[in-house]
Each structure stands twice: as C-alpha cells, then as structure tokens.
Design brief:
alpha+beta; about 15% strand; globular; 19 strands; 6-stranded antiparallel beta sheet
C-alpha cells in the first residue's frame, strides 16, 4: 500500500506539512508512473479540447449552455440559464431539465476565470484525477501493483472515456472520481466518507440515481455472499436512504423550475410510436405500462436495431475483457440503463445505446468497479494472475491496448476526431461578425457558434427546429435582435440549416440580411437596407464547391463531380440547400461538358422551396473545356432549401467544379416566385 493510499485511511497528529510529505508516494513507487500518465492526459486533452473549440468544433449543447449557465448566474441574469428554448421549462433554468448540486463546484473556478477554456481545463483535470483514484482503488483491492496497472491502463485508454472526454463539458465528469472514492471508503468501512462521496455522486445528476440503485443492490448481494451483511448492512441501508433523498430532491427541484416533464416522444423506440401518437412528451411510467399491456412490444423494442445495440455493447465491454459481466455490482448497475436504452429509446436517441456523448461517464465507473471485483476473485484463485511476471505483464498491457483500439474502431471513435485544418481568414471574418453585434443585444446563434458568444447575457441558440417550434407554439414567438449563422462552418452539420428553417418565414420580411461574407450571415430585425460585407464593404459571392453538393448519378473525382454516361433526366448533382432572401442573383456554374453537335448535354438550374420547384435554368452544349455558365434569377420571398442542380440531357462527359452565387440587388423585379415551376 502506498503512502498516498494510507493517507486516505489512517489518521495522524503530525503537522500539515508532515502529513503532505507523508502522503507522497515513495521514490520508485509505480504511483509516480500513474501520476505522469494522468498529467499527460490532462495536458493533452486540455490542449486538444481547447483547439477544437478555437476551430468551432464545440457546440451549444453542451459547452455553450454550461458557459451561459455560469455566466448568467454570476452576472445576476438568472439561475443557471442555459440559453435554450424548451417548452417544458420556459424559465430557462437548467434545473428545469436536470438537477445537479455538484455542478456548482465549478462556479468559483469560472468566477475566477470566466472563460469557456476554464470549463475545458477543469473537465480534463477531473477526469485525469479519476485515473489516479482508480489506480488507488485497484491497487488496494487487488493487492497487486501490476494487475492494478493493467486495470488503470484499460481505463486511461478506454475509447469511450476518450470520446466523452473530448465532447464539450458536463457535470457528469465528477461521477467517476467520486464513485471510485466512495467504493474505496466502503471497502475500508469508512461509513461517513462512503456516504459523503456517494451523496456527491447522487447529487451530480438525477439520471445517475438509477444505475446507483442497481449498484446498491449489487453491494447487498456481494455482502450476503461474503457473509458480511451484518457489518455492511448499515452502510447499504444508508446508501438506500440517500437514493430516496436524492430522488425526492431532484424531482422537487425539476418540478419547481419546469411546467411538465417526460421524454420527448420523438426519442421513443419506433415499435412504441403508434401507442404515443399525439403526445408531446411521455413518462417512463407510461411507457412501462404500455409495454406491460402489450408484452410483445418488449421483444420488438429490445430487438429493434439489435445489431447496432449488440455491436456497441460488445465494444463497450471489450476494454475490460467482459469481466464486468461476471460481477453482481456492475451487472446490477448496468441493468437499469440498458433496460431504458434498449427498450424505450429509438434511432433518434441512438446515443443512449451507442454510449455516445457523455453517457459513458454514467457507466464506466460501475464497469471498472465490477471488473476490479471480478479480478479480485480470479486472482485469489490463480497466483499467476495476481503476481504476473514482467513478460506476462507486458502481454496483458499489450492485450488491453489492442482491445481498446478494437473497441474504438468498432464504435467509430465517438466524438474523438482529428481537428480540422485552420482557416484563419474565415475565422477572422467570423470573429469580426461576432464583434459587430452589440454585446448586450439579443442574439440567436447557430449551435457551433454559440459557445463563442455564450458569455453574452442575451445570447441563445437553437437545439433543433422541432424543440424551438414547440416552445413558440406553447409560449411566445422568440424575436431576437440578431440572427447569426455560417453555412460554411462545419457544412456537414445541420446547425446553420436549423436557424434557417426555424426563421424561414421571417427572413427577408421581419429580418433583413444585414451583413454577408463567405457564408456568414447576420440578420437584423427590422433591417431594410443594403447588404454589407463583414471585413469588406461589399458582401461578396457565395461559393459552393463540388464537395458541398450531393451526388446523384455523378461521382466524386479529384474535387469535382463527374458523370461519364447515363440517361436523360438523371440528376448528376444537387444541393447544398441554402436559404436565400429576396433579391436578384447570378449563379455561375463552373462546368466541363463534352458532347457531339449542338444538342444540349446538361441543364443547370436553380430550384428551391418545399417542392424543389425550378426557379431558373440554362441548357449547356459541349463546352470544349471548362466554362462558366451563368443563370440569373430573382426571388421575391425568402426561399429555403435552395439547390443548384445538374440534369443530364444527352450523351457525353459532364463535370462540375463548383457554383458561385453573387447577390446583385434587393429590389429588382422578380422573374420567378420562389418554388415556381
């Protein structure tokens, strides 16, 4: 046992400095290697997540929302205002959706340094610390440095931990270190410390109550099997009381800050959907009663998308070599979560059964406690496992790393991704656009811009058009002074379109396009003047390269879309489904078409609206190389889902390099209404 471990369990009357020195690991202790690993992870993920944020790869839900919570609370703007518009809690407080007391532990840090980077660094510190706490727990329970080291490596390199680590910020990062500490104190019969740490776990988020109920049941079973129920009974009973208190407190807080609860019906599993039609939200109790009344639904829901469910479950268990499945502690903790994720949720919330976002943080500490418990039993039977040789240790560590690698590959890596290349010019333009909006103005920004404006008192964002629409229908229209979006930022994400679709019928009428440049759009309520640029006087043209288009019968080749053959009427490319406000435009298609004679080879057109009706078009004959083909068009109302298409007319090779759209004037005479044939 290291001095650091001993300091947690043995009191001393020495001075504070002596106690600190005594708590340090001995020279040559493997704890120093674990501390070095934790430090490397802390520094690495702090830099990585900061870089991802700087390149606009973080989101409003969750990083922007938490930044706004702390900022609004400290500024006296409201209690934990998260910047979302949800019909269930119009007050805007986070406690209307989730109850967390331990979240407030981060508030003093944010008060010292009110920055989004404070939260990213704090998250990395807490999760890095959980590696050390797990090491102390495993070392104590397994009585083997080498075996404890294998468990620690498995946790430290777990791809699901890395995925959750790289995803924004959440209070659930506190669950692993607190739960590891609670279980350590439980095994040391430190009753008050056990209950204290368990209380911190339970008051981190109301959702953790359910796996904790299973975990406490597992503790009861394990104590009964070991014949220690009389000794451990008071702690288990106290834990049960804490669960009840936490559940009652969280329910009371959420009820106070919200007007109704339940799951949004769109997240419910597809086999259950016919039974909940017409309901905006549904409770778990209602879903359970529905399943009990129709027992076949249990099988249908559990087996829906069963291949994906099994794949991700296997991937989740690989880093611990499935040991957690042979222990009552982890099995009992997993059961409530898996029952919910596998039976009640569908494809719209696949993140539950795919263990995505921050959800691994709920389960990983239970899984590793179970793995340690199972390993303790095995090592008691096999001395070779308890005291592995150096070569055996190297083999075990290598095997664990391979399992983590396979797990990460099978799960797709989760949120862990290579940072995108820096686009300093575009970022400078976007930063200038943000700065051009008054600090205290009411603003709705798209999801991936919101973290960069979340400290503003009146900034908010749109999670999804459906959620936002539900709020407006139930309460009131949201009319901020400004809308900010960027169609070139993360083009594969739906964030810009979410704003465009939500305000589609108000753009160009209630909201005029105030500034535009490089896909960055600032709409201003009541504005009816000329469109200006952001870092330049004129707005410039919109550029859509071939990569931003969807392909029909065309194929991608060296940054272009190419079609060598096909039938008349084939759609070669289409997209990118932008939104245009009223005005006159010129779309310039950069195409290369080879054909015979003077017959048209391809028609390029502009279409838009819900029915994708044609607005304007131009037939193209053989171009004898690359040529710019222009299509002039004017729209008299804001048009969503605008696309620039290529439709085959005759035989020959056709290629698209991109489309450039220039805005000419606002008040031109219309040549077509949006969506007209």
């Amino acid at each position: 046992m290291s001095r650091l471990t001993e300091s947690l369990s043995i009191g001393t009357s020495d001075s504070l400095s002596d106690r600190v020195l005594d708590s340090l690991p001995e020279r040559g202790s493997p704890t120093w290697y674990v501390l070095a690993l934790a430090l490397a992870l802390f520094v690495g993920f702090s830099i990585y997540t900061a870089l991802m944020h700087a390149r606009f790869e973080t989101t409003g839900a969750d990083l922007g929302a938490y930044t706004h919570m702390f900022s609004s609370t400290l500024d006296g703007e409201g209690w934990l205002q998260h910047g979302k518009y949800r019909a269930s809690h119009p007050s805007g407080s986070y406690w209307g959706a989730h109850f967390s007391l331990t979240l407030l532990l981060f508030l003093p840090l944010f008060a010292l340094v009110p920055s989004v980077y404070t939260l990213l660094v704090a998250k990395s510190f807490v999760l890095a610390a959980s590696v050390v706490v797990l090491w102390l727990l495993a070392r104590d329970r397994l009585d083997s440095d080498r075996l404890a080291g294998v468990v620690t490596v498995s946790y430290a390199f777990n791809p699901f931990l890395w995925s959750a680590w790289s995803f924004d910020f959440q209070e659930q990062v506190l669950i692993p270190p607190f739960l590891f500490a609670a279980y350590y104190c439980y095994q040391k019969d430190r009753r008050l410390l056990f209950l204290g740490f368990l209380a911190l776990v339970l008051f981190t988020n109301e959702f953790v109550v359910f796996p904790t109920i299973g975990f406490i049941g597992g503790l009861f079973v394990a104590a009964a099997i070991a014949g220690r129920l009389r000794k451990r009974g008071p702690m288990i009973l106290g834990a049960g009381v804490l669960v009840v208190v936490a559940r009652v407190a969280s329910s009371a807080a959420i009820d106070y800050y919200s007007v109704f609860g339940g799951l949004p019906t769109y997240v419910v599993a597809e086999p259950l959907q016919p039974f909940i039609q017409g309901m905006g939200r549904v409770s778990i109790v209602d879903l359970a009663m529905t399943v009990l009344a129709n027992p076949m639904l249990l099988i249908d829901s559990a087996t829906f998308a069963v291949a994906d469910k099994l794949l991700f479950f296997v991937a989740f268990m690989l880093p611990v070599a499935f040991l957690a499945l042979f222990d009552e502690l982890s099995l009992a903790a997993l059961a409530p979560y898996l029952g919910f994720a596998w039976v009640f949720t569908g494809e719209a919330k696949a993140v539950y059964f795919e263990f995505g976002a921050h959800y691994p943080l709920y389960l990983l500490p239970f899984v590793y406690i179970g793995a340690i418990h199972a390993l303790r039993r095995l090592s008691g039977r096999f001395d070779a496992l308890r005291w592995p040789s150096r070569s055996t240790l190297a083999g075990l560590v290598s095997a664990v790393l391979v399992l983590c690698l396979v797990s990460g590959a099978a799960s797709g890596g989760g949120h862990l991704a290579v940072p995108p290349p820096a686009d300093e010019d575009h970022q400078e333009t976007l930063d200038t656009a943000i700065d051009s909006i008054p600090e205290d103005a009411s603003l709705i920004a798209q999801n991936d811009i919101y973290p960069h404006v979340a400290t503003r008192p009146n900034a908010s964002f749109i999670v999804s058009p459906g959620t936002f629409s539900a709020y407006e229908k139930r309460w009131q229209n949201v009319t901020p002074e400004y809308l900010l979006l960027d169609t070139q930022l993360n083009p594969n994400a739906p964030w810009a379109r979410a704003v465009q679709q939500t305000y589609a019928d108000r753009l160009g009428d209630e909201y005029g396009l105030y500034r535009y440049q490089e896909g960055i759009q600032i709409f201003k309520r009541g504005y009816d003047g000329p469109v200006r640029g952001i870092t330049q006087s004129d707005p410039g043209a919109r550029h859509y390269d071939a990569a931003s288009m969807a392909t029909g019968t065309g194929e991608r080749m060296d940054g272009t879309i190419v079609s060598d053959n096909g039938s008349a009427g084939d759609y070669l490319w289409f997209g990118p489904y932008d939104t245009l406000t009223p005005g006159s435009y010129t779309a310039t298609f950069r195409v290369n078409a080879s054909g015979s004679g003077s017959d048209p080879v391809v028609t390029v057109d502009v279409a838009g609206g819900d029915d994708h009706g044609r607005i304007a078009s131009e037939s193209v004959t053989s171009t004898d190389g690359w040529r710019n083909v222009t299509v002039d068009f004017t729209i008299d109302e804001t048009t969503t889902d605008v696309e620039f298409r290529g439709i085959r007319e005759g035989s020959g090779r056709i290629a698209l390099d991109g489309v450039r759209v220039s805005y000419e004037s606002k008040n031109a005479t219309t040549n077509a209404s949006a969506g007209s044939a």
